[in-house]
Amino acid sequence: MAMRVVLFLTLFTGLCVTDSQVMDTPSCSCVSRNLALGATAVQSSTYSGAGAQHAVEGNRDSDARHGSCSHTNADRDPWWRVDLGKVYEVTRVSITNRGDYGPERINGAQIRVGNSLENNGNNNELAATVVSISAGVTKTFKFNPIKGRYVNIIIPGRNEYLTLCEVEVFAEKYTSTYTCVPRNLALGATAVQSSTAGGAGAERAVDGNRDSDATHGSCSHTNADRDPWWRVDLGKAYGVTRVSITNRGDGSTLRINGAQIRVGNSLYNNGNNNEFAATVVSIPDGITKTFTFNPINGRYVNIYIPGRNEYLNLCEVEVFADKVE
Ligand SMILES: [Ca+2]
Ligand SMILES: [Ca+2]
């Protein structure tokens, strides 16, 4: 599953946004990237092997005994620094405080952002001061954009241990600091079908669950209709470019063979006369198969088996519009 997500991001990042434009579009959802994740981090000293990188590994676990918190010795003015690799206009830093001991140690820490390594970067511009953070809590500090490649956390004026369970850094001014993925437009949308067998309604194919065992209640099922069909209403028209179908995995694999995907705005003949997008030659047992095509403008997506009496089973149908809106 993790691999699937990574591939998905790699394949589709960038299709959702333009170089200079807004983030979310109706067909894409975007999240600000944590620029510190996996970046190089250093600190004034390291206590018991708890290196600076433990604060940028993507794990907020606040129990220092679990190995995901950085930890200095009781240095004078202890500090920690991450190198973002290039200059960003930093607007937000989140710090996860230690939860298993000494939450007050973080009190008075300063967040500094800039491009200088003078005094280890601790003379860079002051962005915010950490008055306190409760044990194990992640607290977010927002400020006006500060240009910088380095983000420091320093506790000035005393001898102290600096423990950071996670530091996340964001710069929300440009699209390059966001990751955008296409939304599944069919998820939770209204779906109907030519008839319903055994209570297996059309909505089961848009419930966000690909479970392909029809006995688990997440697959739609028509009767053996002549030319059975299923249709989802996206709520408005999109330039649809991609449909994924999850076939039933507990038998009856061949029923889907010859199904057509149709996209358009008409409800004439229940939408089955809308523009032809792709034919499902076959889909193996329980597999999710993706059909891509040039954008077709449409609010309705139909799955339709023409020319015979058949049961139409769909365990999940996902619909995407990968172009910029
Ligand atoms: Ca961590
Ligand atoms: Ca389902």
Description:
The protein folds into two domains: 31-180, Galactose-binding domain-like (Jelly Rolls, Sandwich), CATH 2.60.120.260; 190-320, Jelly Rolls, CATH 2.60.120.260. The strands form seven sheets. Strands 2, 5, 6, 7, 8 and 11 form a six-stranded antiparallel β-sheet that branches. Strands 13, 16, 17, 18, 19 and 22 form a six-stranded antiparallel β-sheet that branches. The protein has a two-stranded antiparallel sheet with strand order 1-12. It is mainly beta. The chain is built from one helix and 22 strands. It binds calcium ion (CA) (2 copies).
List the defining traits of the structure above.
325 residues; mainly beta; Jelly Rolls; 2 domains; six-stranded antiparallel sheet; 42% strand; elongated; disordered N terminus; binds calcium ion; calcium; BG_Antigen-Binding_Lectin
Averaging pLDDT over every residue, what do you get? 91
CATH homolog superfamily of the largest domain: Galactose-binding domain-like
Quick one: biggest sheet? 6 strands, antiparallel
Individual helix count:
1
Q: What small ligands are held by the chains?
A: calcium ion
Shape: elongated
Strand residue percentage:
35-45%
Helix content: under 10%
The multimeric state of the shown protein is: single chain
CATH top level label of the largest domain: Mainly Beta
CATH topology of the largest domain: Jelly Rolls
Layout: helices, strands, pairs:
Elements: H1 2-12, E1 28-32, E2 40-43, E3 70-71, E4 75-76, E5 79-96, E6 109-114, E7 125-130, E8 138-154, E9 159-160, E10 163-164, E11 166-170, E12 178-182, E13 190-193, E14 220-221, E15 225-226, E16 229-246, E17 259-264, E18 275-280, E19 288-304, E20 309-310, E21 313-314, E22 316-320
Antiparallel strand pairs: 1-12, 2-5, 3-10, 4-9, 5-8, 5-11, 6-7, 6-8, 13-16, 14-21, 15-20, 16-19, 16-22, 17-18, 17-19
